[in-house]
Structure formats: C-alpha cells, structure tokens
Fold this protein.
Amino acid sequence: MTDTVAKKRGFPPVLIIFLTVLIDMIGFGIVIPILPLYSEHFHAQEWQIGLLFGSFSMMQLLAAPLLGRWSDRIGRRPVLLLSILGTAISFLILGLANSLWMLFLGRIIDGISGGNISTAQAYIADVTPLEKRSSAMGLIGAAFGLGFVFGPAIGGLLGHYSFQLPFFVAAGLAFVNVIAIYFALPESLDEERRKLHTAQGVSLGESWSIARQNKLGPVMLCTLLSTIAFSLVTALFALFTANRLHWGVRDNGYLFAYIGILGVIIQGGMLRRLVPRTGERPLIILGSLFLLLSMALMPVTGTVGWIYVACSLLAAGNGFVTPMLLGLASKSTDAASQGAVMGLMQSISSLGRMLGPAVGGFMLSYDALHPDRLFGITPFWFAAGLMLLALLVSFGLTPAAKSGAAAS
C-alpha cells in the first residue's frame, strides 16, 4: 500500500510512523531517570540494576529480527499493534510492581515489544521511493532525538511526585499509540508480497541468510562498530563530565538536550537536502570521521566550550551515520524482506548498546586506578579506534539498490 491510499484517509503514513516512534521513544525516555532509583526501592544491588537494563537490550536483540520477519509474512500493521500493546502492558507491570522480579518481567516484555522499531522502519521502506528512502529513515532518527529530549524531562518531573506515575503515563502513551495505529494507519505490505514468505519459517537463521544474499555484511559491521562506540561514550559521559568538569544532572541535561535538538535538525531536515546530492556513502564517511574526531578530542579537552564542540561533532556524526546505514540496508533488499533486514539492523544495534557500556565501564575503571592518566581517555580513545575501523569499512560500501525495493 502506498502513500496514495493513506492520503485518501487524510493521514500521510510517514507522519504516522514518525509519531508512533516518537511516542514510543518518549515512553522509553520517561523510564531512564526513574528506573535505577525505583529498583533501589526493591533493594536491588548494583549488579542487579545492570542486569535489569541489560535484559531489555538482550530481549530486543533476539526479538527484533523475528518481529521484522513476522511483519514480512502477516503485514506491518498487526505486528505494530501487538508489539506496542505489549509495551503498554510492560509499563503497567512496572507501575504495579511490588517486587524486583516484576521489574524484570516488565523490562523483558518491553524488550521483546521494543523490536517494533524494525517494523516501523520496514513500513517506511514500503511507502517510500528508493531515492527518498535514506532521508525518510532520518525521520526515525529525529523521532529518537525528540523522544530523548522530552522523555527524561517528563520522567524526572513526574518522578518527583511518585515512582509509579511515570510508568503509568508511559503506559497511557503506548495505549494512545495503539489507538492511533488502529484507526489511522493502513497496511503497507500488499498480500502478494506477504505470500512470498508464507511458506517459509520465521527464524534468526533465515534472517541472516537474507542478509548474506544481499551482501549486507559491511553495512552491518559499520552499524555494530559505530553503535558500540556511540553507546560507550553516551553511557560514560555523565561520569566523565562529573570528574573533569564537576557537572551535575542539570548541566548534563542541558547538553543532552542540545545533542538531541541537533540530531532532530540534521535527521529531520538536513538529510532531505543532502542525500539527493551526495548519496549515502559520502555521508557515512563524513559522519564516521566526525564521530572519530569527537571521541578522540573529548577526553583531552578541558573546557565547557570544547566539550560542546566535541558533542556537536558527536551529534552530527551520529545523525549522518545511523540513518544512512539503515537506508543502504533497505535499498539493498527486496521489498518482501524489508522486515527481516530492518530487524537484523536493530538487533545489531541492540548488541552494540549492550557491549559499549560494559567495555567502556571496564576501561574507565582502569583510568580511575591510574591518576596519572586523563580520566576517560582509555574508553574514549578505544571508541575512536572503533570509529577508525568503521571509517575504513565505509570506504568499501557499494550497495546495489534493487528495483523491487521501491515502494509500489
């Protein structure tokens, strides 16, 4: 189903998907400042809090390719409805929790349901022409940016009154999301395309087979390297600024809001003008270079001004790299396998978000034990090294767009 069908109902599908991801990310962002403190209410130890956060990414890693593949078989709309409903239920469980195991249950269900982003990306691919595919993926990134600007702020405000209130509000937003999709979002994958996969199984092995057939290895390797590096830096950033600049929550909040707004400007606006002129590969190379410079410079800067410069490069680099890699993966895949490939891309990103903070935390502890070293230099330069590898790989990206991947 194309834009024409949706416009007859008066709702451009890309806009609805943007709002869907935005509401999803606001709900996710609401949880960030509350969950650690809420966990301590149930006497959770530090390692249990780490596992609580990790359980979400682990389940998302496993579920995203499967949800994406299911959407290739039964359609995007039912998968979106069921997965977002699962998200709403998970937030209700968190709000009603009376023990630590209920927190784990809620996060596990949310991680499984969180794989719906891959289905949203597949929907974008269904309704967007090839030449506009990558810039449309940028709208997903813009929704992420806005969600991470407003979500933690709302969570911090509501959490002042009650630990449970933010989770109930997040559940309410998710239920609103379900209603909006049910009444306003048409199916994007026609029956003919779905029939191509009804005789095939739904498994991780099948999704990887599709990726190999489409020669997506370099794209996925760039995704993994850049996600590990970016998540490492963002996870350790508050500790870094506290040690080097003596910043508190408010100062970091201002900077993260600045990064989020830059991301929205780049992914929601600039990419639409740049991609038709340059294509994806040059922007991935430029973005990888920006990330490399940011991560290399950040630990040796000693002033607020230079931190903002480094974070500007960080926001710009991530704003270029992430949507362009998604665009390349989508354009290199036929229309009937978009869900499987977008699910794998999200799964790889989830793996990166698990590995980055863990590796970075170990390296940061090394810096803390050696006062002669600049605090943060080991993990940040390690991240820069990963981006150097990603930059080298990006020079070899040569995707072949398939005509079947275009929106019908």
Summary: The chain has 17 helices and no strands.
